[in-house]
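Reviewer 2 asked us to include a model.

Predict the structure of this chain.
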Amino acid sequence: MTDTDHDPDIEYSPYTGSFTDNGITVTVNIFRIADDDEGWWLEVVDSVNTSTVWDDAFATDEAAYEEFKSAVQHEGILAFVSSPEHQLH
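Predicted model (structure tokens):
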């Protein structure tokens, strides 16, 4: 194994964590590759590990979190949930 075969170091934002709205909890992951200028990535994971990832990186971790909050406000938390028991409510 060479040095190029290892996984990159990931840095997680302090904004990473659980988020609950209307009794539904998702995990918000905001992260970047350490020592990379590509920006911060936003991923939302529901209770059955279905992942929603934004196509583009954000300049700051705060911008990524604000985008998530805006999406919840405009689309609702169910936009990020694939579990059938939550879709029926």
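Residues 3-87 form one domain. Strands lie at 10-12, 17-21, 24-33, 41-45, 51-53. We have added this to the supplementary material.
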